[in-house]
Amino acid sequence: MRPRGLARKPAFFFPIPSSLERVMHFGGKVSRIFALTSCIAALVLLSSCGGSNSSSSSSASLKLSLANGSQQNAVVGTAFGQKFSVVVTNAGSPVSGVTVTFAAPGSGASGTFANGSASETDTTGSNGIATSSTFTANATAGSYVVGVSVQGVSTVSGFTVTNDAAPVLAVNAKNGSLQSVLMSTPFPMPLSAVVTQNGTPMSGMTVTFTAPSSSASGTFSSGKIIENDTTDSNGIATSSTFTPIRRLGLSRCPRPSPEDLSPPRLALPISRPLY
To answer: Residue 199 and residue 212: Cα distance in Å, rounded?
Structure first.
């Protein structure tokens, strides 16, 4: 029981304690006020954090990944078989309408897009994929990287591609040179030539054997001084029987000099008659 005559101090006169120890002195009511104040402060803090996330740059959460087009080879001056493409995502979901820049080196081994430039921009579709136009190797052989970027997004390694040197086709006489026979007597050995590309035998290549149109010469089994033959799996083309045209003396087939031709053509002239 409280003694009569003592006035009860209104609750609103109680000061808000500044520490947990003073809260315990004043009992439950003040403790509840302190707890309510703390919760309000926590809510304000959480609200502030939420507002900061929503105002952050949209590009900060985007991810750029290569899709197709890396590790390709093309002969200098020709187009690569596959276009370059990347995918842009946000938390794993594709993002459309994002501008992507593809850029090849400005010098040395490089190439150009359909716009004739070493760089171009493309936009992602509903699937988050941006695809370049056809890319064509320039005249310089070598490996290089075609870069790709999106403003505000971490860069990726880019597309590694290679411009291959132009293949070298070579045709060389193999058999049939340095033969000598009497006029109108067929040469015992047919003429043959081998065709290679960078040292590798090429099958299915057409080789033209051509004898001189005047002076000492001869004809193939067709009766003509020109004949086309096709290389076999060993890269060798072999003529039909070659017969000298009737003239005084002997005819001789000299060894021809090697030639690099495309498409390959081989001329094996017959030398002047020996007197």
So the answer is: 29
As a whole number of angstroms, the distance between CA 21 and CA 156 comes to: 57
**CATH number for the segment(s) 60-164:** 2.60.40.10
Q: Which two tokens stand for residue 216?
A: 């000492």
Task: List Cα–Cα distances, 242 to 207, 228, 247, 272, in angstroms.
Answer: 15, 13, 15, 16
Question: Would you list the domain boundaries of the chain?
Answer: 16-48, 60-164, 169-252
Specify whether the CB–CB gap between 179 and 270 falls below 8 A.
no
**Residue 132 confidence (pLDDT) above 50:** yes
Confidence bin at 41 (pLDDT 50/70/90): very low
How are beta strands 200-201 and 206-210 bridged, if at all? unpaired
For the record, the structure tokens of 230 come out as 């096709």
- Per residue in 243-275, pLDDT (tens digit) is 998 654 444 454 444 443 444 444 444 433 443
Q: Which residues make beta-bridge pairs with 207?
A: 229
The secondary structure element, H or E, covering residue 48 is helix 28-54
Structure tokens at 32: 């509840």
List the one residue out of 29, 37, 74, 68 whose CA is nearest residue 167.
Answer: 74
Q: Is the pLDDT of residue 84 over 80?
A: yes
pLDDT in tens, 93-110: 999 999 999 999 999 999
Q: Name the DSSP letter for residue 140.
A: -
Q: Nearest 5°: phi and psi at 113?
A: -90, -175
Instruction: List phi, psi (to 5°) of 162.
Output: -135, 135
Backbone angles phi and psi of 91, in degrees to 5? 55, 35
